[in-house]
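[Automated response] Your request has been received and processed.

Submitted sequence:
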Amino acid sequence: MKIVVAFESMFGNTHHVADAIADGLAPYGSVTTVNVNDPISLGAASSADLLVLGGPTHVHGMSRPASRNEASSVARGSEGKLTLEPRAPGIGVRDWMDDLDTVPAQFAAFDTRVDVARIISGSAADRIEHTLARRGSHALVEPGSFLVSKGTVLEEGELDRARAWGVGIGEAIGLLQHA
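Generated structure:
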């Protein structure tokens, strides 16, 4: 099974979560991890059997150009405490999905979001799930959210949770293949 874990990341948290998910999925197929700003990402996703797609939650949902620019401003004003990923701000998952010609038959959506009630923070994963389902793909598992502090640091244990979530996706793949 060809699995692509694609992500948008501003400060690195979503990138780290994507890598941990890919580690959890590794026993279940051939896994490629790509930034949505990588030129090969669209082709890799279009030819995948399973797309695992995630991004940071901005203003209750997926990032927009204005929220990515705001994140860049926050990083510049942080006196070196926050640094942007090399390809940030770039495009976001919203725009990337618009450019995706073919969606894989199955997907899983994830996000990083501030550690407050979901009703307050919103969820990029919920919007990713809605968009991919509307385009005809099937959600393999419930969306996953991985928490960061208000200072944009991954909360303790979140990478372990991400790895376990990846294993759960792999187990769901196995159940489908044996059904």
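Summary generated for your ticket: The chain has one domain: 2-177. The CA atoms of residues 61 and 127 lie 6 Å apart.
If you did not submit this request, please reply to this message.
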